Amino acid sequence: MSLFFHQLYGELWKLFARKRTYIGFGAFFGLETLILLLFQLPSVQRSFGRIIERAGYGFESYFSGLTIAFLILYWTVFLLGGLYIALVGGDIVAKEVEDGTMRMTLCRPVSRLRVLAVKYIACLIYTVALTFFIGFSALGIGLLRQGVGGFFAWQPLQGIFFLYDFGPGLQRYLCSLPLLAATLVSVTSLAFMFSCFNMKPVSATICTLTYFTTDNIFRNVPYFDSIKPWFITSHIETWYHIYRSPIPWLRMVEDFAYLAGADATFIIIGVVAFSVRDFKS
Question: What is the pTM of this model?
Fold first, then answer.
């Protein structure tokens, strides 16, 4: 077991020593800053304020750092978060095969399953790290600029329109981060599966993004409402439900069970595909 953790440490060192690993962190911080600046425009504030005032609440009371942090998280995390998670997941195995280092690794007295397990866990740690960085950096810059106040959770596509005091709102926001990270594991798992195939790292990333983009397009077609639960993106959005009152725990458990089954399927397919590959030639 100590050898396993030693290998995991080495894999994490390799992952976070690459400059491209930090592209997602830098891109999100820049985007968060831009969104915060745009929210300072009077026209943007008036447009957003009308949504709150129509419900009979004061704009100044709920235009807080916590509200801005949620909006940043909602607007950016799946699109850009999925992009950079797919980039790392699609790169983790395929890049070493492309560079030829995988053949040297497999010459060591270590099983292919252990090699893949170490790499997959490293991808999971990156997914959690990026998600929490996005969540806490959005909350930090939001609070620094707008300060504390009421929390307005608004997600029209999911029918979420709830207002909370700062304390309960902060609790729900913090609880949503591990749930969000758990849903993004599906992106990690699919990218990892493609990375195990005989393809270039960029191809693995593109295939992952194509799958989720196509899935999301089909899910939003009105005529496909009856088969909406078949699409994985319908279940990935379950983290939004933590902002509902009362929280639909049963529905969330069902969504996470579906995602866990999909993740397990992706991993098994990837492991089988990698196990039968020939690295001699």
Answer: 0.90
